[in-house]
Amino acid sequence: MTVKAALFALLLLITAVFGFRWAAAVRGVGGAAPAAGAGRPTWLHVAIGFFTNFFDMLGIGSFASTTSIFKFTRTVDDENIPGTLNVGHTFPTLAEALISIALVTVDMRTLVTMIAASVAGAYLGAGVVARWPRHRIQIGMGVLLFAAATIIAVRQLALVPGGEAIGVGGVKLGVAVAGNFVLGALMTLGIGLFAPCMILISLLGMDPKTAYPIMMGSCAFLMPVASLRFVRSGRYDRRAALGLALGGVPAVLIAAYIVKSLPLKVVQWLVVAIVIYTAVAMIRSAMRSRSISAAAARAASTP
Question: CA 231, 234, 238 angle in degrees (round to 5)?
Answer without folding.
Answer: 75
